[in-house]
Amino acid sequence: MVENRPFNNLLPHLILWVGIAIVAFPVYLAFIGSTHEATIIANGQMPLTPGGKFLENYYRTIFIGTSGTTREPVYTMLVNSFIMAVVIAVGKIFISILSAYAIVYFRFPFRMTAFWVIFITLMLPVEVRIYPTYKVASDLNMLDSYAGLTLPLVASATATLLFRQFFMTVPDELVEASRIDGAGPFRFFFDTLLPLARTNMAALFVILFIYGWNQYLWPLLITTRDDMQTIVIGIKKMIVTSDALTEWQLVMATAMLAMLPPVLVVIGMQKLFVRGLVETEK
Q: Cα(95)–Cα(72) distance, rounded to whole angstroms?
């Protein structure tokens, strides 16, 4: 039993609030910068209170774009990033759960060899696979397309391993009961395994959505057109390194908008996400 002592609770809460302030302060500064004129930030005079350009800056960011290296409005980048993140997350879960189901519940030649081949890919750095993957995508005319952005990233050895380990915890009695009930492989998969794996899929979806949303290297290679670039690439292109003035108010507004979808996904799926991470009894 933990005793409720106000003084003992004060120090942990104080440390917690200091930690929150340290993490949140850069985000607060980015929001403040997105509400001021470019000249104020360029002169190094970053205020600590919001300015009067909130609506103007965000309207220009979302619907017009910058006047620098990329003129594409942010809403097209948000759409591209959202499509990429959703397809990657759903595709990884779909392929991984099917491959794990086959490995655990079907007996076919070289079953474990197939699993270890999938597992070994975990040890290959992305940089090792990036050139051959780009060559294949280029030969298949997938450059500057949603297929090129997403399909090379939809396989996941980690998700396959996690689903395999989960399926191995399902009691054999449940499999036998399904057989006695007349359930075939498809009915057992859809009616029994998928409901049991619901929280695991939700937790993986959150992780993989953020993974797909934050992709930088692959979109940078596979896309050359401004209308196909993701928001992470867009932020990089907005920061000019030449003598031209970087429109920092638009860069910070874009950064604020880039944070919203992952935050909304985490908040919306918070309960399933936490249950999927901590639930052990099935």
A: 34
Per-chain mean pLDDT for the chain: 86
Look at residues 87, 107, 102 and name the one whose alpha carbon lies nearest to residue 163.
102
pLDDT at 2: 55
**Half-sphere exposure for 148 (CA within 13 Å, toward CB):** 24
Distance CA 234, CA 198 (A): 34
Output the pLDDT for position 28.
92
Q: How far apart are CA 150 and CA 89, in angstroms?
A: 10
> Looking at residue 226, what is its pLDDT?
83
Q: Position 104: which residue type?
A: V
Provide the token pair at 270: 């918070």
Backbone torsion region of residue 65, taken as left when φ is above 0, otherwise alpha when ψ lies between -120 and 50, otherwise beta: left
Token pair of 54 as six digits: 């909130």
Q: How confident is the model at residue 282 (pLDDT cuts 50, 70, 90)?
A: very low
Q: What is the rounded CA–CA span in Å between residue 231 and residue 65?
A: 12
> Phi and psi dihedrals of 198, rounded to 5?
-60, -45
Whether the pLDDT of residue 185 is over 60: the answer is yes
Q: Write a three-state SS string for the chain.
A: CCCCCHHHHHHHHHHHHHHHHHHHHHHHHHHHHCCCCHHHHHCCCCCCCCCCCHHHHHHHHHHCCCCCCCCCCHHHHHHHHHHHHHHHHHHHHHHHHHHHHHHHHCCCCCHHHHHHHHHHHHHCCHHHHHHHHHHHHHHCCCCCCHHHHHHHHCCCHHHHHHHHHHHCCCCHHHHHHHHHCCCCHHHHHHHHHHHHCHHHHHHHHHHHHHHHHCCCHHHHHHCCCHHHCCHHHHHHHHCCCCCCCCCHHHHHHHHHHHHHHHHHHHHHCHHHHHHHHHCCCC
